[in-house]
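Milestone M4 deliverable, item 7.
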Amino acid sequence: MKKITLLDGGMGQELIARSVNKPTGLFSTQALLDEPDLVTAVHTDYFKAGADIATTASYAIQHDRLIPVDLDDQFDTLHHQACRLAVEARDRFGSGLVAGSMGPLGWSYRPDLAPPPKQSAEKYAEIAHIQGSYVDFFLIETMSSVDQARGALMGATAVSKPIWLSISVDDDDGTKLRSGEPVQDILPLISEYQVEALLVNCSIPEAISQAMPLLSTGQLPIGGYANGFTKITTAFMEKGSTVEKLSAREDLAPTQYADYVGQWLQDGATIIGGCCEVGPDHIKQLADRYKS
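Output delivered:
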């Protein structure tokens, strides 16, 4: 049996499920401010479920998200906090790695709102310099166009750490990025920026199943971590919206999710996990079924 690396599951939706507070457009960033103990608890529960990696709750810590709510002066503090909580949870558990999450500029699934690559690179380099002393590698997440991914990669390479790149694909056609570009158009970036793993995330499992064979070039590890939403709606893609505009699937219990993941493994994946609405019970099912 091939060696499987098991990521954690979603942070934001798990925090919403546990919190007494209503979700905001800041997602898990709000919990770093108001309920840091919850963030630690989620990291810990994923490790207990069998995850090998804790992903920092820094996905949405971007200047363009903090400025509208007058929190940009907390940018550095929030990144340090997200990294410390993940490292502390890992250290208390006694094993595992920490991935420094870098989410999209502009808004998730809206690469048209991201700055051009050179401008984006400055923003990501700033994050890389903060996270670099804490994390084992950078996880660039939910990149929805080639240029969006290029900007993040240019910035992340400012610090000498391994880089994993994760793209998001169209829910209706997993052979395309959310920008409409073919998935294969991302592949030239892999060698250019020495990416060490290529993944697909925050798309429905069926779309990831379409994308996975297209990534299987044999050059590097591939994998996926799907969300559990019915669909990313047009309303949610408006900047500043909250996850209240999305609905969770009722047909994605841990065993059902693991069935989808089994197909990805057949298509070459060795890195698996979960995104939004995929929680510790799902990760435990993956650990029980697929980790040797």
